[in-house]
Amino acid sequence: MAKKLLDLRGLSCPQPVFETKKAVEDPSFEELEVLVDTKTSVENIQRLLSRMAGVTHAVEEGEDFKVIISRT
After folding, report:
1. What is the rounded distance in angstroms from the CA atom of residue 45 to the CA atom of residue 12?
2. Out of 4, 9, 11, 13, which one is annotated catalytic?
3. Would you give the distance in Å from CA 33 to the centre of its chain?
4. CA distance 53 to 38
5. How far apart (Å, rounded) are the C-alpha atoms in residues 43 and 26?
6. Taking the model in full, what pTM does it have?
7. d(CA 27, CA 41)
8. Residues contacting 9, CB < 8 A, separation 6+
9. Contact at 8 Å (CB) between 11 and 39?
């Protein structure tokens, strides 16, 4: 299993949520980093992931945000 990066900056909601859902359903990663550029996207992704298995946390990086999803 590997670490995967998904750059969704510049996309407006709900597109980041849809793309994150597709990526999470792929079992080939151990950790997924999702880059987004709005707090709303972070909140919506976290809401989606609260209903799915996995550990998640968000980190603010300058003007962007990184949502880290781990299967462990």
Report:
1. 12
2. 13
3. 6
4. 24
5. 21
6. 0.86
7. 23
8. 35, 36, 37, 64
9. no
**What domains does the chain contain, in order, with CATH numbers?**
2-70 (3.30.110.40)
- Judged on CB neighbours under 10 Å (0-12, 13-18, 19+), 63 is exposed
Could you list the pLDDT tens digit for every one of the 72 residues in the chain?
588 999 999 999 899 999 999 998 888 888 899 999 999 999 999 888 887 766 678 888 889 999 998 876
CA dist., res. 45 & res. 19, Å (int) = 10
| Whether residue 65 lies in the annotated active site | no
Q: Which residue has the tokens 């462990």?
A: 72
